[in-house]
Specification:
The complex is a heterodimer.
Chain A lengths: L13 H27 L2 H26 L1 H23 L1 H45 L8 H63 L4 H10 L16 E2 L5 E3 L6 E3 L1 E2 L13 H5 L13 E2 L5 E2 H4 L2 H4 L18 H11 L22 H4 L11 H13 L1 H4 L19 H4 L2 H9 L1 H4 L12 H4 L8 H19 L14 H10 L33 H9 L1 H4 L12 H13 L14 H14 L5 H12 L4 H16 L48 H10 L25 H12 L16 H15 L7 E3 L2 E6 L3 E10 L6 E6 L4 H5 L13 E5 L3 E4 L3 E2 L3 H10 L1 E4 L5 E4 L4 H4 L10 H4 L2 H9 L19 H30 L4 H7 L6 H12 L7 H13 L7 H7 L13 H10 L3 H9 L32 H4 L2 H9 L28 H13 L12
Parallel strand pairs in A: 5-6
Antiparallel strand pairs in A: 1-4, 2-3, 7-13, 8-9, 8-12, 9-10, 10-11, 14-15
Helix pairs in contact in A: 2-5, 3-5, 4-5, 12-27, 15-18, 18-25, 19-22, 20-22, 23-24, 23-25, 26-27, 28-34, 33-34, 34-36, 34-37, 34-38, 35-36, 40-43, 42-43
Chain B lengths: L14 H13 L4 H16 L1 H4 L2 H18 L3 H7 L5 H29 L5 H6 L5 H26 L21 H12 L2 H22 L15 H25 L26 H9 L8 H4 L1 H20 L3 H7 L1 H27 L16
Helix pairs in contact in B: 2-11, 6-11, 9-10, 9-11, 10-16, 14-16, 15-16
The chains are: A mainly alpha, B mainly alpha.
Chain lengths: 1153, 377
Amino acid sequence: MAKEADPGDTHYPTITLNMWFAISSILLVGAVFWMVIDDWNREWKQWQRKFQTMEADRLESLLKSYNEDPKFTTELTQINEQFRAAQATLDSSKGALEAATEALRLAEGAKYEADNAQRVAKGDYDWAKYLVEEHRLKNPGDKMARQGEIDTAFALAQKTKLAFEDADRGVEVAKKKRNEILASRSKAEAALAAATMERDRHARNLELLRPKTLEGKLAKGVRDFPGLDFAAPSLTVNKVVLEDKLFFDLKFPGKKKTRVDMCMTCHVPIDKAGPEYAAASNPLKSHPRLDMYLSSTSPHPMNDFGCTVCHAGSGETLSFVHADHNPRDEKQRKEWEEKYHWHKMHHWEQPMLPLQHTEASCYQCHSGHLDLIKDEAPRLQRGAELVEKAGCYGCHKIQGVWQELPKAGPSLKHIAAKLSPDWAFAWVQKPADFRPSTWMPQIFHLSNATDTTRAKDRIVEREDVAVNAILEYLWSRSEEFAVPPPPVKGDVERGKEAIQLRGCLACHQIDGLNAPNETNEFGPSLAGVGSKLGEAWIYQWVKNPKKYWPDTKMPDLRLSDQDASDIASYLASLKKDGWSAKRPAVDEKLLQEIASEYLGNQVSLSEGERKLKAALAAGNADRREAMLYVGRKFILRQGCFGCHDIPGFEKETPIGTELSDWGSKDLDKLDFGNFLFTHPPRMEKRRDAWAVGKLTDPRVFDQGKIKAPDELLRMPKFRFTEEEVQIVTTFLLGLVKNDIPVQSMPRLSESKKALARGAALVRQNNCAGCHTLQHEKVTLKHPADGIVSVRGALSYDEDAEEYSVKLREVAPSFAERSDNGVSGGEIGQGITFAKDQLVAKGAPEGGGLLDSFYKLAAQGLRLENAKGEPVTRPLSDATAAEPYAPPSLRWEGRRVQADWLYEFLKKPYIVRPHVPVRMPTFEFNDEEASSLAQYFVRLEEQRYPGEFTRRFRQENAMSRAELAQGAKIGRDVQDGLEILERLESGGRVPADVFVRVQAFAKEHDAKGPGSESFAFETAQRLPFEPIAERSEEYFRNRENAVKDYHVKARNLVGDNNSGNCYSCHWQDGKPVVEDPFAWAPDLEKVHQRMRPEWLRRWLLDPSQVIPNTKMPKPGIGPGKSDAIFPGSFEDSVQALVDYLMNYDRVTPDSSAQ
Amino acid sequence: MNFLTLAAAGGSHGMGDAIKDWIDALCSPNPTMIFVITIVAIAALVIFRKTMTKSWFGWGMLLAALAAMVWALQDPDFRRVTTLPDNIPIVGMIFLTGFFTWLAMRRSVENDDLMAQGKPNFEASESKQKVFVWPDLVYTELICMVILTVVLIVWSVVLEAPLEEPASPAKTPNPSKAPWYFVGLQEDLIYFDPWIAGVILPGFIIVGLMAIPYLDRNPKGNGYYTYNERKLAWWFFAIGFLLLWMVPIVIGTFLRGPNQAIFGPFEAWDPHKLPPIVNVDLSDIFWINLLGSVKPEQWYIRELPGILMLGAFFVVLPVVLAKTVLKKIALSLGPVRYGVLVFLFLSMALLPIKMVLRWTMNLKYFVAFPADWYFSI
């Protein structure tokens, strides 16, 4: 170039241009390389590479374990031996094989020729047909022209086809012959392939991940090479496309987009089971709950649910920051900022839920049955419970079950009959001053009122006027409610005892009588209640709570007049120390000012309001009129009617923002006040940050804002702890607007529905206040099995070397291994273990009353005998007092008939005359009673598979591993073991597991049910099936089999020689013995109440069902009751069962019939 | 509270903060001062053109701008808005526009000096020489092409394409902004009816640009830089392009925040900043403020003052101008060309006039036609 033009003639020297061209070209090449490398070098690839290394290491060690497995190597040697032997035989008859091979070759050659011939003939035939058809169309005269050609071609085609078939057969014959010769070697080959199939598969996978051969290495290198990785890379984007299953709401009406989650591009082994993945760290860690999520056998398989519908975040992005991960705390935030240059994705509206809030997402599908998923989503359930307790739904509408709940606070319809305005003034101003544990929030004198920048507006004084005016309004509208004095005089000391005996402390807490616990905070604390309520009102209330407040949760304890009066006297005597409340006078000027202000702002005025306005202007307004007007305005402003029934506000709508889809609420619609921009500390623009701020101080966003008094924020402050604020936030984040298609929603079985409804009722009525629902769990180190848990009462003495647990539920680990130094395993038995073996001791679920009850019993339990005289006796410890306490409901569904339970819940009566605590009348409606009755049955039904499996193994001395192998459960033995462990402890397992166990048990146990206990466990009848023992037919059969069967059985009950049942049990509604401590349930009603299979199990050995029972083992059977009922002990027990189940049929005269 | 609150905005209020506050106050709540400063800057460039086009001055300006930029980037709010991948080109545009305006003036000054000495200007003497298509044209173009490609590739690798939230008809982004090249036009929407700002004015711009060869028959300044010979054209360009096109792009990009409120460059975009908009029509000013009466019912009577004023502006003013200031031009162009030129000029002038009236008197419309016409001026 330089030669062609004279450098002097060009404007720029060519050499300079060349240099620039060279430089720019090099830059271009560099830039292109940079572009390709940048495109290739994606963040996610590092994780996939790491995963490949991990997986390769795993496969390598797996392969190594094959080579080290003596069983496998021996098997392999054997097969190889067979192969060599077969080869040797073949070698010896070489000629035959060669001949057969040659024959096969020739046959195949012949087949090939024949095939060609038939194809040609077929083609010729088709061609002939075409030609002749054409000819006939053109010459319509001769319809059968040239038929001969067709016939010839057809005949040839047929002939060649037959020849081909012959040749084909020839090949088959030759093949068969050759295979026969090769048979033994082929067999060895097949065996080798089968034995090494799995290993070879692993080896093949390993070769892909970590190639050993040159071409493998080359191929892997090329596949993932920058710029070439578009074809078939080993590092690829993994994704789940949830077509027709879950959608992403595009916010255009009616427009949805299929949800696509690519999270598993980095979280590669998220759905893979195996200890290596469980132990790895994120993102190469498997999901911690594969039994619940992602795995194909779980209820939420990955291909149906993906990731983001629960975790939120951006599923279609491939980098840590873009996926909108969110740190769970400050430490993690710092760590992420350093490690990933993390920052919030401001434009993504569904940020990933921080780990502690992930449960929130369960609400989308499980909102109707949170009690059912309590174990999986404890925070969410607790959050819902707190929202229910705090009554958030009163002001904030929340779609769903929330709209059916009664108002959270008491009715104020008859408030004048209950409270004094002096007390009420102090209470409304600051409820916690009187009762720190109250759920009534603080409404006035919060941060935006006491803010010094508002001193000019006199907010605090305004609020004093407001409280006064509100009370004025409430008292003026309070309806008539008669509170006559109690008919009998009460006694404080007796009242103190009665309140402990009758079960009041299950829901209420009184200092000195019981320590606060989960259940006794259900109702308000009664400390100092005498400073609030009068004796007469308390009497009326405890006699019939629903009379004053129809929606109250307080049940009717059916107290006698005396009991009620004693309790009223006692409660009225509980004064709060140093409490004196006086309602201050109203600041008249301020009142008028406020009234004028409100009247001025009001658009339309009623007649009365117009008059008031005129009067105010004229300066001669009636003080009371103004008070009532302002009171009404403030009730409206604060929305008091959201929680309380207030006359005159029946039709008002709640004042709060609807929360139904708060979790999807546009962040710009949340008022962060000054906290996003100017006000230090700046708050992060996140929903959870807002909720935490709002719940911690509901008025915080007024800080630094200039507002008129009526514009100030008005949400009251609840007594949430810091932890509770976080939990309620979890709940709020769950209230998202997501259209989950019906087919992706859970379909609850009838049984699950009953469990959900029942659990909610049990919680809402505080059944756990009295009844134990689940016994305490003791976790200890087992010498053979590692960490195991048993349920039972742990007793220990700090000085002793050993602890012991009295079992309340079977503990198979111990029953199975009586040889290893720890004995026991059956209910009622004790197991002892060294002190250092104890790992943890869990609290029992329910039975909140018991601690204080046992404390009282130790001092002396007062019962009344038949004449109503008190009998007091100290019961030294829980073991002795337990029979007198409310019964555990652990076995309720198995113990009683559902029909009876239904009737009993609707109309309770005294079942256990020796128990002083009353089962109250809750006034359940039909639906509630039937749901509760079903609930207990369904609970047993749910526990049944686990208990059956455990029992079956125990009876047959079979280990879990044996059962897992026998019934083919799990992918491998370890997996099977884990599944069975979950099954036996009531956890979730794939649906087919129990079917397999049952089938295996049936096969294994073909000779029939084993021992008594096993028969009991297997006799799982349908819950609502009629009781067979109660049928006429059964009765007659029994009678026919043994003469006077039932009469004899009746005599067995009342036999003084073998232990008269009536020495404790009541008979026909009356006690037989004097001592109330000896009393036991009336036998007259047993046939209505008990289930026969339970009754039999119970009578066989009561202490093996309920360890601390008063009931002894019946003294019947050989050598004891032979005279009355000859037969074995078991037969005698059966006779007792049959008699008790037909008690009403066996009259004293029935022997005569 | 907890980690969800960021660290307290720290420190004492130093000298730097005072400067930032001053700049913020200069820019908001309305951009009057920005326009004033721009006009002053343009005027200064003209008046002190001899000094300002010296190399040392150019370098000094560049270094000062860069230093200011480095200092300002320390501020998180400034950084947030200037380093958005969307906005980085506009930062570049400010520098480029400044540079080319300066360069053009420098060449003009050189040429004007040459011509004042009776010498041919630089371009004239240069255009007599001839160069080869190869290598002087094609080769240099090739090199430019390669370098531009390199720049585009590096740019696309370094700055990720920005993505915003999923679109929603119920919730438009706040602020909603046009693509950068229309941000200036969008600025007009603040002052004018959408019909005028969105359709008529852009139409005039295109038509006006096409009409230039037919309107401007002055051969001076053809193919060379000059200020002295084409003062009016230069000012037309400075006002029409620099002031009314480039400056609004800069304002719209960097200073318009949520609710279209103007934020200083060091201010956080707080959506609570809602400058009151209590704009009034000319009819309000006339009937209520001046006459102290109420507005007439019929719109044509009500809007008469505005209609008359606009009529005077577009019909009487050109005639007056033709007889006075623009007499020479009117004569040389003839009535049609003159009419078109003046009409286009007055349309352009309407823009700053309306802006000034908005800032000073909160003027909304000169003429507010009935609402169902969807058109007002």
